[in-house]
Q: What sequence folds into this?
């Protein structure tokens, strides 16, 4: 046994979040999710209940807000960020204290991506990411993030390989999401990824809004760093 400097544990280079029904939010938090996105497109999500289940994790919701008053009510109920799509009411974007994530269409055009610049978006949400990712697919992801100038998050399988995740990371994806039962496994895979070594692998990063949780945890800088890349 010798005496020497203790090597710091490598910091994860991607966020791992939960995406799914409200019923599994507590399970996802206990599994170590970095953030929670409740899929409430069926109209069954209750923000207050989800907030309680998420604890101090950043809480997002893919729910419909018809106007600014509805968006404000969601924020006051405990939501930190709202997922919107291209056909969402524009008035839902008027709450300056609520974070917004845009769900992209399957094949966004260059004009559309460039037009996002004036919007206060935290990130872009991608669907149907092919696995394994091809060179063409990685280039398309890089193009999307570069033109929109926003970090990207996407849903992925819990069993995604380290190679898959490293390719997504290189393309500009900063956060991946899966079901509650796959959180722990996906976090271990992300933890195994090599650290970024060159500027080509550095992208814009996402700092998910803390909203309700931040007010009681501002002094806990270490916890905030764990959810910010």
A:
């Amino acid at each position: 046994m010798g005496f020497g400097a203790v090597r710091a544990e490598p910091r994860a280079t991607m966020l791992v979040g939960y995406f799914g029904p409200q019923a599994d939010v507590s399970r996802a938090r206990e599994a170590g999710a970095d953030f929670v996105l409740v899929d409430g497109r069926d109209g069954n999500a209750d923000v207050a209940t989800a907030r309680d289940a998420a604890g101090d994790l950043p809480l997002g919701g893919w729910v419909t807000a018809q106007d600014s008053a509805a968006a404000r009510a969601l924020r006051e109920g405990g939501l930190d960020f709202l997922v919107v799509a291209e056909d969402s009411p524009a008035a839902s974007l008027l709450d300056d204290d609520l974070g917004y994530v845009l769900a992209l269409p399957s094949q966004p055009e260059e004009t559309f991506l460039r037009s996002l610049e004036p919007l206060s978006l935290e990130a872009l949400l991608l669907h149907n990411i092919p696995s394994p990712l091809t060179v063409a697919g990685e280039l398309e992801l890089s193009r999307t993030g570069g033109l929109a100038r926003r970090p990207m998050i996407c849903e992925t399988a819990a069993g995604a390989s380290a190679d898959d995740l490293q390719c997504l990371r290189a393309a500009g994806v900063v956060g991946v999401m899966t079901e509650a039962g796959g959180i722990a496994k996906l976090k271990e895979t992300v933890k195994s990824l090599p650290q970024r070594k060159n500027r080509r692998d550095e992208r814009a990063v996402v700092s998910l809004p803390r909203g309700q949780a931040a007010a009681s945890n501002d002094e806990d800088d270490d916890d905030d760093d764990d959810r910010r890349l």
Summary: DSSP finds nine helices and eight strands in the chain.
